[in-house]
Amino acid sequence: MSDHLSRAKRSDVHGGNLDATVFSSSRRVALKSRRRIWRMAALAAVFSVFALYLAWLEAYDAEPHRNDESPLGEAVAQATAPAASGRGPDLVKRGEYLARAGDCIACHTSDKGRPFAGGLAIATPFGTIYTPNITPDPDTGIGRWTEADFMRAMHEGIGKEGERLYPAFPYVGYTKVTDQDVQAIRAYLNTVVPVHYTPPSNDLRFPFNQRWLMVLWNLFNFDEGRFLPDPKQSAEWNRGAYLVEGLAHCEECHTPRNFMQGLKTSERFSGAIQAGWHAYNITPHKTSGIGDWSEQDVVSYLSTGVAHGRANAAGPMADVVSDSTQYLNREDLRSIATYLRSIKPVDRGESRMRAAWGSPASDVDAMRGTRVSGVNGAQLFLANCASCHHWTGEGVGASSPGAYPALLHNSVVGASDANNLAMVILHGVRRTTQDADVLMPGFERDLNDEQIAALANYVTGQFGNPRARVSADEVGRLRGLTP
Q: What Gene3D superfamilies is this protein classified in (predicted)?
């Protein structure tokens, strides 16, 4: 009996200890959970206060930058303006020229039958953005926008209703455009045919679909203010800087991006990949950039899409030439060349200039009478390319406006990667200028990924940079991108 009682007491004691242990453990878990919740709440509160502070700064900043009001800025703008300023027809004509320089039609046109009506899909790492209608339609366009609304969008990236615009609209460059030029562009847009069309809504992932976050993006990637001329430079240099940095927004394609997709200013104009296409280094570095190009090479390329013995515009750059730069006057083209030849050279490590590669082929003699099996790049070249580019790769038509370009001394074939060559084979070339209507058919429906890779690798190996190789998998990825 005594033993039973003793065991019972011990059992009660051990059970009590177990209950106490369980209770203590549960209490610790609950305390940790509450601490975690409080920490998260505190972080959220701090972030919210910070965001509200930034919003307050934006809303109550009473000192906007107006650098274009400087006398020197006015003098340079007036001295190099492409047309007379003023009201009426002269202002509209000047605005049309400036809208061409800014290539507004390229992004704001998805259907050429309704120019400036928007709807073009722009792929970003965060989702798809569709460009807005900027025709003067009062319901779906900017017909009800005031001049101040338009000015604020161009200079500050803020829409009519106060919404933050995404930087797919290059207000980072347009902020440098003078008030007078923005007014002229608006005067021209008021005269285009109104199109009643509502583009699709943006398709951006959370949290990138929250426009207020652009306040944070702007904090690190946007410096609002008009172009400030350099008094130590010539009027021609300043005009070129104004166009390249501002209205023509060349950095949007030719400058690499940081992790926030802002411009990496430490590597300005050194080249970047855009939708599969390589926008090449346009700094004056002798091998990595265009340091060996003359002023006339730059002018010729921008006005016709061709710099003989160097480059032929394709892809998005062909569109830029067709829609924009071919319409610029010679003074502005020379100014752009002057400025580009003065910026800091950036070395990308290339051992030779892109246009310095290549030797004629002799594959016709070697292949005659032989049986070819499998996927053969030389055979594919002779079957699909030689009729226009000649079986030696030396082209047809020499330097005439409608010539079929040589593949030797060709910047696309001599590049350190085969992206642009593969994209040209896939999607072809379409470039219309006052000199020529250039058309190369694409082979995306005729050749599979393996064949296009073999063809591209043959072309780079024979006529260009033999280190530039592309795989069938990479061709498949490029095939799916918007041409």
A: Cytochrome c-like domain
